[in-house]
Design brief:
Layout: E1 3-7, H1 11-23, E2 30-34, H2 37-47, E3 51-55, H3 63-73, E4 78-83, H4 88-96, E5 101-104, H5 109-129, H6 146-157, H7 164-170, H8 175-186, H9 190-208, H10 213-219, H11 225-236, H12 240-248
Parallel strand pairs: 1-2, 1-3, 3-4, 4-5
Helix pairs in contact: 2-3, 10-11
Length: 253
Amino acid sequence: MPNLLMVDDEYESRYSLREFIQSSEYHYFSLHEADTFEKGLLMLKQLKPSILIVEISLPDHNGLELGEKAKQWDPGISVIILTQLKLFEDVQRAINLGFSAFLLKPVLRSELKQIFERIIIQSLSTEANHFIEKSEAPTSSDFANPIDSSIQYIQKHFKEPITLNMVADSVYLSPSHFSRIFKEEMGVTFIEYLTSYRVEQSKSLLKMTSLPIEVIAHQMGFTSAGYFATTFRKSEGCTPTKYRSLFEKGKIS
């Protein structure tokens, strides 16, 4: 489960963030809290969070220093700075350090949502790529084995909105001829194979990550979460959410 660390000595700020996380689509994040620089530093080392939200004016040190250390240890971490007073020097330093956002208190829910939409989806997409099998096969077509070449093409580009015409072009066949020989050799149509492959790949993300269904649908090349859920249910006999639940309970492997 992805970790989010908030370091702020103001209880109200931590409570507001906790309430936002629990009531939003980002409830799958595990939220951890610290009220001092030293505690935050220790938790950074232990938890290795995906996101750090830190107040500049901590009682024992400057929060910008904590964000800087976090980026040194993990360049991929997203750092969000909170402050009561917007000083140009602080803003400039946060930009130079590559932080994701600089927010003035009190922070509005709409501001948090906008920032989370911007940085979390990017983080989740990166996480997803760790669990998607990469095809290392060459993309050049084998004229003697056009179906093998088309399978390689599909497995490399399945996350994209590929069409039968695009795949047929990649193996230098007309769409109608390609469609016919694909069905003859594979026993299923091009669309059936592509859909089945996307569903199979989605299972890894459902089992190995906490990604929202919407993100998985997008990663797998489905046009919407609803279409993904309908397609998955037809193939597997249950929804993606149910599949994940069954895996967590050990009822499927």
